[in-house]
Write a structure and sequence with these properties.
Length: 358
């Protein structure tokens, strides 16, 4: 199946403009599995490659890369890095799943020590943080205590470094099928979310197909329901997922999720009729209060599509990229980063630009 998507999704909100992104630069340095990016004050980028278990500094001006620190359990070492987070003081904290702590880099990109992450009934330290706000608070997904069956909902929790295990619940999100069916995460219409510098939480409600903002003052704003084309899950989608699984793709999350899917009639997994509307892991909030979410398109689509939303949850525009990418980081309203995977399975970083006036 080749999906020649009309990027305007003609029957969707007709007032929302579709614009094309321009490829600004591609960097030659290959990666195996990029799992996060953050910027240092001087402009260097901190990149975690969880496939190679390494931390890399990239100088965007020259394209030169330098590896940071080394493997180990010492105070300035790491084992399995994910999700670098830039803090207001210019440092970057990297979630080290292997050592169950954060590794801190100073404003120059030097490893200077580690920090314990919180553990409580609301967070057992099993997933990386999703965002950091302008005052340096971290935000996670946290599942409720296990009661014999997998939870359908989870909490968005906030933590201030230096405040022990004090996690505050800020909102509820859907993380599993409401009917309790076993659905592979790649096909699950679960909520995606991120946090703006102000602390406002933007949530892409997958089942309801709208954007909701939860503001620090306790108010909430719900955007209009989105009219989106539904793309069927067919043999091409299942074959691509099976290939990725058999290759040990580190994007597969969780032991149960890593099982190889078979045909629908021969598996205990339930396969929905259509793809989820957005990638839950590719949602990013930007200042002052904007939300970017990557549309989930068929596996053989030749393009990528990113929706942006305003502070009311209304769609503002659609950004088309003329090749398959994974949205990695949004710098501002006019610049974003994507990961492109080549025919050999290697990943390359690309920076794109759009006209912020549109």
């Amino acid at each position: 199946m080749l999906c020649m998507l009309d990027p305007g999704e003609l029957f969707a909100q007709s007032a929302v403009e579709t614009i094309d992104a321009r490829l600004a630069v591609e960097f030659d340095a290959p990666f195996t599995r990029v799992s996060g990016m953050a910027a240092l004050p001087g402009g260097q980028l901190v990149i975690t490659d969880s496939g190679e278990r390494r931390i890399v500094l990239l100088d965007p001006a020259t394209g030169q890369t330098t590896e940071v620190s080394r493997h180990g359990q010492g105070p300035r070492e790491f084992l399995l890095p994910f999700a670098p987070m830039a803090l207001p003081d210019g440092s970057v904290w990297i979630y080290d799943a292997g050592n169950r702590r954060f590794l801190e880099l100073d404003a120059g990109g030097n490893a200077i020590g580690g920090h314990d992450w919180p553990t409580s009934a609301d967070y057992g330290g099993r997933s990386p943080p999703v965002a950091v706000d302008a005052v340096g608070d971290f935000y996670w997904e946290a599942s409720p205590p296990f009661d014999g069956k997998a939870p359908i909902n989870a909490w968005v929790v906030r933590w201030t470094p230096g405040h022990g295990d004090d996690l505050r619940r800020e909102g509820r999100i859907l993380v599993r099928d409401p009917q309790g069916r076993l659905i592979l995460r790649q096909f699950l219409a679960r909520d995606g979310w991120s946090v703006a510098p102000s602390g406002a939480i933007g949530i892409v409600r997958a089942s309801e197909r709208h954007v909701e903002w939860l503001y620090p003052d306790g108010t909430a704003r719900v955007g209009p329901q989105l009219e989106l084309e539904r793309f069927p899950i067919d043999d091409a989608e299942l074959a691509a997922l099976e290939l990725a699984t058999s290759a040990g793709n580190s994007a597969m999350k969780g032991g149960a999720d890593a099982q190889r899917p078979a045909r629908r009639t021969a598996t205990r997994w339930y396969t929905p009729e259509s793809l989820p509307p957005f990638y839950y892991e590719h949602v990013y909030a930007v200042a002052p209060t904007g939300l970017w979410a990557q549309r989930r398109l068929p596996v053989d689509s030749p393009t990528s599509l990113i929706w942006t939303f305003d502070a009311e949850g209304s769609p503002v525009r659609r950004i088309r990229v003329d090749e398959p990418i994974e949205l990695l980081r949004v710098e501002d309203a006019g610049t974003f980063w994507g990961v492109h995977t080549d025919d050999l399975g290697l990943q390359h970083l690309r920076r794109y630009e759009v006209d912020p006036a549109h």
